[in-house]
Amino acid sequence: MDEDAGSMTRIFKSGAAAVVTKSIGLKPRKGYPNPSVIELECGLLNAMGLPNPGIEEFKTEVIKLKKSKITVIGSVFGSNSKEFTLLGTKMQDAGVNALELNMSCPHAKGYGLEIGSDQKNVEKITAKVKSSVSIPVFVKISPNLTDVPKIAQSAEKGGADAIVAINTLKAMKIDIETKRPVLSNKIGGYSGKAIKPIGIRCVYEIYKKVNIPIIGVGGINTGEDAIEYLMAGASAVQIGSAIYSREINVFEKICKEIKNWMKTNNYKKIDELIGVANL
Amino acid sequence: MNYPLVTKIIEITNENNHIKTIKFEHNKKITPGQFYMIWIPGVDEIPMSVSYIDKNIKGITFKKIGEATNALFNLKKDDKIGVRGPYGKGFRLNGKKLLFVGGGTGIAMLAPVIEEAIKKKLNSKVIIGAKTKNELFFEKRIKETGAELFISTDDGTDGKKGFTTDIAEEIIKKNQLDLILTCGPELMMKKLMDISRGIKFQASLERFMKCGFGVCGQCCIGDGIRVCTEGPIFNEKNLKKIQDFGIFKRDASGKKIKF
């Protein structure tokens, strides 16, 4: 729900404080053939394959959003620091409020996780982008790593303003009737309820190792889920898959649930919750 | 769950040289206008409106126009396909005097709602339009319902020479209608709405789809309206709010393509 200005406006109006765009590259990309998204027992499995209309066409969507004063985080993916920098400056010119560098998509050859699993690479790309833009830069990192906090530290060294954790988990579903993987790309990324404990663990570990804010993401369906992420160390959260389980107004529902929980438990500010579980 | 139920093809009918109907076992309830995501293992998964509705057997009718429909066209009886759904919202028969307009393959998904209308004893007129006589199908099926049938072909090889909208314009002038239901090329449907003189209107829209259950955003139109979830059937009030209607669609990358 974040490929065009219309859908992002709807999400914003449904209670989100900001919207993150679909990851945008330099050129139009069709992504993988269907099936590209299916539902499994405890979440969604997808291999969209980074479909996007390319930055030049996408700029017009951002400009439309900015006219309605919507807070936009522009997500970009590239195969090297040059591409990331070019995309970052173009996004900034279009008017986004912050950048998110996708270094964690688990199923696109030459992009995402393939870039984001190398510490030096992460630091270099972040530093190059940081030196060419004036807006905040976030780095979205993967849980498909042996040492998640190390990559977060590399992003911090490169000058990142925040860490976004986590992206989807590499996963597969085989259909036993047809004896083949269901997704056309075979391997995809798992999101939704099932991955929440993994996201919580990653945020918790990262919080201990970095001094920049963390945006928690992965399996948040309720206000309580969001509070769990805050306690692990997140300062904000992102929500995607819950749109299918709790409809588009999941954003206002979750905000309400957070407020209710805080009221019941005598909390006045979100800040009082951030990282409290890190004993 | 939004996961393909694998089922065997139990019957295949050639409607004409380019159009086939495939029937399969599927016992979930479906309303005319709703659709399935049909998985052709190893090839693709595509949205397909239902064209035959029986308690345990459902059917889809399609033209071979691309890789997926070509593969589907070549399947044999007993071959396996995956079926997800039904998805979206179907037609609502909220009127007594109805006009159905099917352009191209549009009549495939209108046929079951026409049959439902006749069952409910609603006055039903049907226009089927095609480029040429050889591309027409379902005329017999519609005639058998007892609905009043009109045919148009672009080249005049059958019925009236011209477009469905030419016939529709005359019918609208001479009759008091409650509701127009249509499926076909978007420009045809747009024209039809323009000449509908404020009659209630329902059109079935087609957009590139991926998830089918409202999460991926691929099929969004207007202000974030999901064709797969809030559609594919839209009424005149909603269509007027959708700036894209009859103007552009998006390809798999999200790039705008003008009609």
General description of the model:
The complex is a heterodimer of chains A (279) and B (259). Chain A is an alpha/beta fold. Chain A has one domain: TIM Barrel, CATH 3.20.20.70. Helices cover 39% and strands 18% of the residues of chain A. Chain A contains ten helices and 13 strands. Chain A has helices at 5-13, 55-67, 81-94, 113-116, 119-132, 148-157, 196-209, 223-232, 242-246, 250-264; strands at residues 19-20, 37-40, 43-46, 72-76, 98-102, 137-141, 162-165, 169-172, 174-175, 180-181, 187-191, 214-217, 236-238. In chain A, strands 1-4-5-6-7-12-13 form a seven-stranded parallel β-sheet. Chain A has a four-stranded antiparallel β-sheet with strand order 2-3-11-8, with no helix packed on it. In chain A, helix 6 links the parallel strand 6 and strand 7 (162-165). The radius of gyration of chain A is 18 Å and the shape is globular. Chain B folds into two domains: 5-87, Elongation Factor Tu (Ef-tu), domain 3 (Beta Barrel), CATH 2.40.30.10; 97-258, Nucleotide-binding domain of ferredoxin-NADP reductase (FNR) module (Rossmann fold, 3-Layer(aba) Sandwich). In chain B, strand 8 (97-103), helix 2 and strand 9 form a beta-alpha-beta unit. With 259 residues, chain B is an alpha/beta fold. Chain B has six helices and 18 strands. Chain B starts with a strand and ends with a strand. A seven-stranded antiparallel β-sheet of chain B has the order 4-3-7-1-2-6-5. The chains are: A alpha/beta (279), B alpha/beta (259). Chain A binds chain B through residues 1-4, 6-11, 22, 28-31, 33-41, 44, 46, 48, 51-54, 57-58, 175, 177-178, 180, 182, 184, 240-241, 243-244, 248, and chain B through 1-4, 6, 37, 39, 41-46, 80, 82, 84, 210-211, 213-218, 220-226, 250-256.
